[in-house]
Design goal:
Elements lengths: L9 E7 L4 E6 L3 E4 L7 H4 L7 H12 L6
Parallel strand pairs: 1-3
Antiparallel strand pairs: 1-2
């Protein structure tokens, strides 16, 4: 059998933007996420605005404010 067939497996900390940290095992040493089960609207029952204004502003900057139909 080949010994290089499987990737390295590490004890990993998943860090969320809300500050929550989850320790697990994965093939990456460090994982960063924007939304986790601690702050996701499905689990919390609260709505959260996730940078939608920034995306709209970037779109307007890139394509302008033109209306062509």
């Amino acid at each position: 059998m080949k010994s290089e067939g499987h990737p390295e497996y590490y004890v990993t900390t998943i860090r969320c933007a809300c500050g929550n940290e989850i320790e697990t095992r994965a093939t990456k040493k460090d994982i960063r996420v924007e939304i986790c089960s601690n702050c996701h609207p499905l689990f919390t029952g609260k709505q959260k605005l996730v940078d939608s204004e920034g995306r709209v502003e970037r779109f307007k900057k890139k394509y302008g404010n033109k209306r062509t139909y």
